Amino acid sequence: MSDPCLLNKIKYETYIYAELKFDSMAQPKVLIVEDDTVILSIEKWRLSNLGNEICGSAGTGAEAMECVAKMQPDIVLMDIHLEGEIDGIETAGRIKEEFDIPVIFVSAHIDEATISRAKAIHPDGFLRKPFDNDDLRIALELGLKK
Fold first, then answer.
1. Which of these, 61, 84, 107, 124, could form a disulfide with 102 (CB 3.0-4.6 Å)?
2. Other residues' Cβ atoms within 10 Å of the Cβ of residue 19
3. pLDDT digit string (tens) for 17-61?
4. For the chain, what are the domain ranges?
């Protein structure tokens, strides 16, 4: 005969594992790279409302590279126009090359030269500011479908 205590323990552990697995799948870790503090606050608010975990934020390309190495996000929301030595497009290219993490570009400015540079690194999505929760949710879902 089987031990009922052991069966209950196995059921409980299976339940806990399933819950943990569901939670980790339901809440992807998102790194936000944005140099405007107002927009950063809005993006954090939107991501939280959609049930995402914000693992960190960065205001420059160099900070973003450090954060990615340290936090290993599931996806990066990247402003194209960043202050500093490297812009969002170059930073995204490095992240994709070195860490193979999906990157979604975010920008209010869309000119042909910028779009051509962005397309060259094969981004996993693009959001034009301002965007709403549905735009963000869809971009994240598609970006995470690797």
1. 124
2. 10
3. 444 444 445 589 999 999 999 999 999 999 999 999 999 999 999
4. 28-144
Question: CA-to-CA distance for 54 and 76, rounded, in angstroms?
Answer: 10
> Residue 92: phi, psi to the nearest 5?
-60, -40
Instruction: Give Cα 4 to chain centroid, integer Å.
Output: 44
Q: Which residues contact 93 (CB under 8 A, 6 or more apart)?
A: 120, 121
Cα four-point dihedral sign 45, 47, 51, 52: negative
| SS3 label, residue 48 | helix
* Helix %, strand %, coil % of the chain (to 5): 55, 20, 25
Does the structural domain 28-144 have CATH classification 3.40.50.2300? yes
